[in-house]
Amino acid sequence: RAVLAAMPCAALLLDREGVIRLSNEAGVALFESTDGPPLCGRHFRTLWQDCDSEPMSTALSATFSGKRYEHTAFCPGADGAPRWLEIVFTPLGQQNGLDAFVMCSVR
After folding, report:
1. 93 φψ region: left (φ > 0), alpha (ψ -120 to 50), beta (else)
2. So what's the pLDDT on residue 99?
3. Strands 10-14 and 98-106
């Protein structure tokens, strides 16, 4: 937890279905609005509804097949302000020969 808290960029742990299982404080600040649903438990694609979500789907598929994936997007944050985001997807751990989780870092 201390490592995640110290990270300046958003860090999201995604399961194979694309559901956010863990986020650091920077992720909550970037994506969770005060009047919206909690970040953990939401599907990853809900973060990209106001921008092109196709590259995000491609990224998730590619990462679960073992490849690191990078993408730059212009999307709104929780406050609605549009911003450029650098997004990196990294496969983490294996279970039954398949990548079990993906770490998504956003800055």
Report:
1. left
2. 60
3. antiparallel
| Residues paired with 102 in a beta bridge | 14, 91
Give the 3-state secondary structure of residue 60: helix
Closest CA to 20 of 30, 6, 34, 35: 30
Query: Residue 63 — φ and ψ, nearest 5°?
Result: -70, -40
Alpha helices (H) in the chain, listed in sequence order: 2-6, 25-31, 54-64
Tell me the β-bridge partners of 92: 101
* Cβ proximity of 51 and 33 under 8 Å: no
How are beta strands 69-76 and 20-23 bridged, if at all? unpaired
Q: What is the pLDDT of residues 1-20, one digit of tens each?
A: 788 778 889 999 999 888 99
pLDDT beneath 50: ranges in the chain: none
Distance of CA 85 to the CA centre of its chain: 11
Which structure tokens are listed for 42?
């939401």
